[in-house]
């Protein structure tokens, strides 16, 4: 018990007693009700934090696929309707509807030839090339785990440029051999990079360095060939800047089988690509063969790139811009990224080609238009990836 003390002493004793109770000393029953008691529902259930992250999208949703398809179809129709020759959008749509239903066409024979022999093949070729470059760029970025990787990383562009230059310099009259030579040169550059990379090691970093070395060597050979005949420099640079000078369906039918086969293979192996992102050890523990998967993926992406380069020349930035835009909108899972990159690349290059052939009285090189669009985006990606590289 507390002894009676003066007023100030009594107050000091009470404070000492309260302090001992706060430290764990037994508190009298008459004062227990004064201590704050936490409710039972708060003691039994821990607090749940509100989720702020969005769930990762790992599969392509039907609604997203339908929306991407509708956007692509709308862009294709608009690109066919618009052109240097003003045919009237109602009449062009009437011509398309007449061909689909077998009705009467509102266009003359010459105007119908402009639509079906010039505009439609060019628009479809631009869509094929854009889809091929975009899906190849997304694949290379996934395999090398580098956001700045593009389809020309393993020497395909240098090989195609060297082969096309040799044909122009050595056989100027054989213009029909430029496309087959560019196709073979692109595949040959990738093959040399693969052989050199495998001979030096088995990692992706070694393969990347091999691609840089092979590209530099083939570019040097191309420059030497140009110096042998300086009169062909303008023709070579016109091809290298990219574009679609089509007058029929030959280019479309030439590139379609290779691009379709490559796109099918890449979409099938999209799930193993997601597993490879976790590392080779994790993929091996799941029963996969990382080396074989990587070889198949790079071969399919290189095939698509070679087919695109052979019919369009060198068009840059498509394989960087489109995959990053798709990642921002739909996530980075390859089962979502690769199909949407196909549609996004087609839309991007069709719009760029439309700008190239209509913004000025004379047609702009397509590579210039994509560079104007892609260079600022490339700088933004470079700045955002700073500090993430290991």
The beta-strand count equals 0
Report the helical percentage.
over 70%
How far do the termini sit from each other? 70 Å
Q: Main beta sheet, described?
A: none
Taking Cα atoms only, what radius of gyration do you get, to the nearest Å?
Answer: 32 Å
Average pLDDT level:
81
Return the string of H and E elements: HHHHHHHHHHHHHHHH
Overall geometry comes to globular
- At the first level of CATH, the class of the domain at 150-314 is Mainly Alpha
CATH architecture descriptor name of the domain at 150-314: Orthogonal Bundle
The percent range for strand residues is under 5%
Contiguous runs where pLDDT drops below 50 for at least 5 residues? 1-7, 49-54
What is the third-level CATH name, the topology of the domain at 150-314?
A: ABC transporter involved in vitamin B12 uptake, BtuC
Give the structural class: mainly alpha
**What is the fourth-level CATH superfamily of the domain at 150-314?**
ABC transporter involved in vitamin B12 uptake, BtuC
Number of helices: 16
């Amino acid at each position: 018990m507390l002894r009676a003390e003066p007023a100030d002493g009594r107050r000091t004793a009470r404070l000492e007693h309260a302090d001992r109770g706060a430290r764990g000393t037994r508190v009298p029953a008459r004062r227990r009700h004064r201590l704050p008691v936490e409710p039972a529902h708060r003691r039994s259930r821990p607090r749940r934090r509100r989720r702020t992250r969005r769930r990762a999208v790992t599969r392509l949703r039907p609604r997203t696929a339908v929306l991407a398809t509708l956007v692509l179809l709308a862009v294709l129709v608009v690109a066919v309707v618009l052109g240097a020759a003003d045919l009237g959008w109602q009449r062009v749509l009437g011509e398309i509807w007449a061909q689909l239903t077998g009705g009467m066409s509102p266009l003359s024979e010459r105007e119908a030839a402009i639509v079906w022999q010039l505009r439609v093949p060019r628009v479809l070729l631009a869509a094929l090339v854009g889809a091929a470059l975009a899906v190849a760029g997304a694949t290379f970025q996934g395999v090398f785990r580098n956001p700045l990787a593009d389809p020309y990383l393993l020497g395909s562009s240098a090989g195609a440029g060297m082969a096309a230059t040799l044909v122009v310099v050595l056989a100027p009259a054989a213009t029909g051999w430029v496309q087959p030579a560019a196709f073979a040169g692109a595949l040959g550059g990738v093959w040399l990079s693969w052989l050199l990379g495998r001979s030096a090691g088995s990692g992706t970093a070694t393969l990347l360095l091999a691609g840089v070395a092979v590209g530099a060597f083939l570019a040097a050979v191309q420059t030497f060939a140009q110096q042998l005949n300086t009169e062909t420099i303008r023709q070579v640079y016109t091809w290298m800047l990219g574009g679609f000078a089509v007058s029929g369906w030959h280019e479309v039918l030439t590139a379609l089988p290779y691009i379709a086969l490559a796109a099918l293979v890449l979409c099938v192996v999209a799930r193993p690509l997601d597993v490879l992102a976790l590392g080779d050890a994790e993929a091996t523990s799941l029963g996969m063969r990382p080396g074989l998967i990587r070889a198949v993926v790079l071969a399919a992406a290189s095939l698509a790139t070679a087919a695109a380069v052979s019919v369009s020349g060198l068009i840059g930035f498509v394989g960087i811009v489109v995959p990053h835009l798709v990642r921002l909108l739909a996530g980075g899972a390859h089962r979502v990224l690769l199909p949407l990159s196909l549609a996004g690349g087609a839309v991007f290059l069709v719009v760029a080609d439309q700008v190239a052939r209509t913004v000025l009285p004379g047609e702009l090189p397509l590579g210039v238009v994509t560079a104007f669009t892609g260079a600022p985006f490339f700088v933004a990606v470079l700045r955002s990836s700073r500090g993430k590289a290991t």
